[in-house]
Every structure is written in structure tokens, then in C-alpha cells.
């Protein structure tokens, strides 16, 4: 690829991790630029010029305008670089994989991001214990939904859909990393999710892009 790829990322951001995985699966080199969400760097004027929403990730390809929203970025990458494919060929199968991905990325995740945590603290006055109960509740809701969907689909294999990595796995693993690493939820309660997580983490694309290996990573929340 001739155009340089740049990804604005943060170590503990699920959405950034999804895109890092996808780029690694495609074998695409990328320059990472850290936007520290905990320090409020997403609100700085120069970053708002890249992503007016003030969120990560933002993806830049050469001189093209930035792309935002992780699922949109991933599907763009997948369509431009179709091997290995992240969506199956069958129409209903593609919808199934997208559904799994969206449970993690669009239902559970938006309820635990920094701007929600900050609102709970500053506007609603919830203390840390109450905020953590909120976060764990929505992560567990996602865990339960995903486990049930995977157990009933008849299409679950080594990964979320058969024996090849798809967009569903790209979204499942960051969700489970957040649940297990940051909030100490017991993933053994969700054996199918936990098994798929283990298979994914055997792959460099997942293991080498994981949050704890990113610039600025810490054990804290």
C-alpha cells in the first residue's frame, strides 16, 4: 500500500483495539498516535479537527480525510483489502456475524466509555463503587447475550463463526479484555466466549495488539 496509515488510538480503548486487530490480520503496517482519554487529550482543538466527536479511533490513509467509528473503519479496510475476509460470503451469515459484533461494540461498549463514566460522576454524583456497579452490569449483560447467541447459533466453531476469524471475534476479544482485565469479571462463567477468546489470543494479530502492550498502558483503570 502506497499511502501511509495512521491510527489515533488509546491503550485501553476497545474501539481502538478492534481496528488494531483488523489491521494486523490484514498485515497492514500502521503508525499509532496516542490520544490519552484519561488526560482529556481528545478534547484538544487539534484532535477535534481530526475527529469532531472527540473519540478514538480515527484512521488516516495518506492525504485522505479521516475515517471515524471502529466498525466503519474495519469494514472499509476489509473491503479494500479483502484477504483474509472478516465477513462470510452468505447474506444471512454476514448479518449473523455483524449482529454478534454489534452486541459488543454498539450495545455494551457505549455504556462504559470515559464520557459516560465522567457523566455518572460529575453530573449524577455517583461514587466510584456505584459507577463500577454500572460498568460491570452492562459488561455482564453483553457477556450473557453473546454466550447465549453463540450457544444457539449452530454456526459457532473454533471462532464465533466457524473456524476462521471474523468481525465478530474482532469485537468479542476487546469486550472480554475489558471485562476480565479492567473489571475482574469471571469469564469462566461464559465458557464458549472464554474458549473463543483463548483461540484468538493464540494469534499474533490479537495478542500483539492487546491493550497492555500499547504505549502508555498501565494496570490502573
State the secondary-structure class. Answer: alpha+beta
Overall residue-averaged pLDDT value: 95
The CATH topology of the largest domain corresponds to Glutathione S-transferase Yfyf (Class Pi), Chain A, domain 2
The order of strands across the largest sheet is 2-1-3-4
Contiguous helical run count: 9
H and E string: EHEHEEHHHHHHH
Task: Give the tally of structural domains.
Answer: 2
> What profile does the largest beta sheet have?
4 strands, mixed
List the topology elements.
Blueprint: E1 5-9, H1 14-25, E2 31-34, H2 45-48, E3 58-61, E4 67-68, H3 70-80, H4 91-108, H5 114-122, H6 128-152, H7 167-182, H8 191-200, H9 204-207
Helix pairs in contact: 1-3, 1-7, 4-6, 4-7, 6-7, 7-8
Quick synopsis:
The chain has 221 residues and is of the alpha+beta class.
What attributes does this structure have?
4 strands, 7% strand, globular, Glutathione S-transferase Yfyf (Class Pi), Chain A, domain 2, 4-stranded mixed beta sheet, 2 domains, Glutaredoxin, alpha+beta, 221 residues
